[in-house]
Design goal:
Blueprint (H helix, E strand, L loop, with lengths): L8 H19 L2 H6 L1 E10 L5 E5 H18 L7 E13 L3 E12 L2 E14 L2 E15 L1
Length: about 140
């Protein structure tokens, strides 16, 4: 899957958080999802329309986690919804208080597949890493 050699403990923690971020979205675990985010975090996304959209933490939950949970309840085979990391391109930390990760990942939904290139920024608050910003370029295609 993802191989990171000779990384610091902080970088390994960030790697785990990135993996959790994707896994939590796939499982629609709202409580764990909210715990990843700083209260003032933002998510920016570019989709097929090539327009930059901005979401607050509450909007992220409403449009991603709640939307996916609703979709899973409406389809006969919810297990077909899969989120997988293709590659963690880079992880960097600075002085143990800020970090960033660049990843490529896939999202498979009924009737479509999305390829995403995502940058996630983290900050440490009270000894806990939290997401402060996500910039995602996703391209969705019909399957």
């Amino acid at each position: 899957m993802v191989k990171i050699l000779n990384k610091t403990n902080e970088e390994l923690v960030i790697k785990e958080l990135v993996e959790d971020y994707i896994d939590i979205m796939e499982k629609c675990d709202e409580e764990r999802f909210l715990a990843l985010w700083h209260p003032d975090a933002r998510r920016f996304g570019l989709g097929n329309d090539k327009q930059l959209h901005s979401f607050s933490k509450d909007e992220i939950v409403k449009y991603s986690i709640a939307g996916l949970k609703n979709l899973k309840e409406q389809i006969p085979n919810p297990e077909i919804i899969k989120f997988t990391i293709d590659e963690i391109i880079s992880i960097s930390t600075s002085e143990g208080v800020i970090a960033s990760a660049e990843i490529k990942w896939q999202m498979v939904l009924p009737g479509s597949k999305g390829s995403h290139h995502t940058f996630i920024q983290f900050a440490k608050k009270e000894d806990k890493w939290l997401i402060v910003n996500v910039l995602d370029k996703g391209y969705e295609e019909e399957s």
